[in-house]
Amino acid sequence: MESKEQCLMELLGATARTLTHLTASITSMSFELLRSEDEVTRAAGRRMIDRMATISGGLDEHWRLIGELTGEHFAQEEIETVLEIQLQPPPQSAPVS
Known about the structure:
- By secondary structure, the protein is mainly α.
- 65% of the residues lie in helices and 0% in strands.
- The chain contains 2 helices and no strands.
- Helix 1 runs antiparallel to helix 2.
- The longest helix is centred in the middle third of the chain and has 32 residues.
- The chain is elongated and about 55 Å long.
- The protein starts with a helix and ends in a 27-residue tail after the last helix.
């Protein structure tokens, strides 16, 4: 296989991986929105989860095609996932006197 073809396949894989991570992150954030007491915010979270499910279906097709090109087939469980990072609360600052 030519070097350019190899580079293009690597680019396709990296792009699909990045989109997969982005979709997972937005979906995670949308589930957090569902915890809100505000109904409008919860509704926005539900709509975004539906949209991300549609996008995820499209990404499954990307991975299938990449598998055909590379000869390596990936199961959904084998695709790298982003670890959730929990933010620590900010440190309490000393009161200003």
